[in-house]
Amino acid sequence: MNARRSGGFTIIELALVCAILLLLTAISIPAMYASRQSANEALAASTLRTIHPIQTAFRQGDLDRNGQADFWTLDVGGLHRLLGPDGAPLNLVSAEIAAADACPGTGPGLAPGGEHRALRGYHFRSMLLDRAGRALQVDGPDADTLAREHPDRFGFTAYPAVWDSSRGGAWVFIMMEDGQIWTRNLSGRGPGGAGPAGTTGVAVDGGQLTWPGPAGSTDLKELPSGPWQIVH
User: Fewer CB atoms near the end CB (10 Å): N or C, the chain?
Assistant: First the structure.
């Protein structure tokens, strides 16, 4: 029996070609996922980095018009949705960043939020407590009686929307008022479960809502995973 087809390839040769293609696919897909994950993580860190000068300008310019130099701490999306003196949103961050806020605030002077969606695999949130356990959201000298600013401190976190390295990131990022960004690997942790200390009643899927305590302490106020690293 002649095993050679009209195209000039034997069945064995075709099988070898298919096997090689399958092998190349098996090698390339994980590399593609890893590349996308790295890109998602880099964007999350750079997004936090861009927010720092925005917060500085917000505080120096008293953009919430409450008569006090303070940071906006209610949420991330408010830096886009807070209304200016002309009644239009300030748009200090992009609509895409605002839409990625997993816990957008409400209240006087805030435009309605749009549809929530992650930004390249990451959610963003305002942190609740600083390193000393002090609240980052306090009521300034205004008439709204809402705890949504702080004269000296702020903190924001970026964390994966999906805890699958093939679909999102595996690192959580935090940034405080000094502009330094910290990160830690959360590989292997699924969504849900108990939140960090200080987040009772707050629904989180892993966002770092409190600043971590000192290494080796019994009250780390952080998720059980790898050590914190500085993002340079």
Answer: N
